[in-house]
Design brief:
Helix content: 25-40%
Radius of gyration: 17 Å
Structural class: alpha+beta
Order of helices and strands: EHEEEHEHEHEEEEHE
Distance between the termini: 22 Å
Mean pLDDT: 83
Number of strands: 11
Number of helices: 5
Low-confidence stretches: 1-30
Length: 190
């Protein structure tokens, strides 16, 4: 699916969603959160940049995703931490099966791979999260979001970190990206 971003549209939607109007009083000390409008062939969604992270749609292409978030914290940069959001076509509604198939595929490549439940949620969509890891090698936090049967796609949010588990701040950024996803278009017509 092709992706493109309209910065003007994202700025307008951010103003509408945040209630910011010209001339309205603003809190001076707190930096504004940035929302990104991501659109592609048959879909669009909004996603929020977590504090201390920057979304990049140009570099996302090298990751095969719609948007990739990079941290500003030196420790996270050194551990090559990224949060990626990808849209996938779905063939059925039970994304737990897809997650299980992915785990089985990874275990063929990495027989010592471990998996654990991941406690994250989305306020509106069914979510299927999991942590895949090999201590000392990598940690992959994954969540598949199903926006509903009217949408022919799912949204995957993943965060990778080399060698050690994510820090509390990195996990908070992952959860923040996940919770902020709002699918805007792409529903199939009945």
């Amino acid at each position: 699916m092709k992706k493109r971003v309209s910065i003007l549209t994202a700025a307008i939607l951010l103003a509408v969603f945040s209630g910011a109007l010209p001339g309205a009083a603003q809190k001076p000390a707190e930096p504004e959160a940035s929302a990104l409008l991501i659109s592609g062939d048959g879909f669009s969604f909004m996603v929020q940049e977590p504090p201390g992270w920057k979304g990049d749609t140009d570099r996302a292409r090298t990751y095969g995703v719609s948007v990739v978030f990079f941290p500003s914290a030196a420790a996270s940069k050194a551990a090559d931490v990224t949060i990626r959001v990808r849209v996938d076509e779905k063939t059925h509604e039970n994304l737990a099966e897809d997650l299980k198939a992915d785990l089985n595929g990874l275990r063929q490549r990495y027989p010592e791979l471990k998996a654990a439940d991941l406690n994250v949620q989305h306020p509106a969509y069914a979510i299927f999260p999991k942590l895949f890891y090999m201590p000392g090698s990598f940690f992959e936090y994954v969540a598949y979001l199903n926006p509903g049967p009217q949408f022919p796609f799912s949204v995957e949010v993943a965060m990778s970190k080399a060698k050690s588990a994510a820090s509390p701040g990195e996990l908070a950024a992952f959860a923040s990206v996940l919770k902020s996803i709002n699918v805007l278009s792409g529903a199939e017509q009945p």
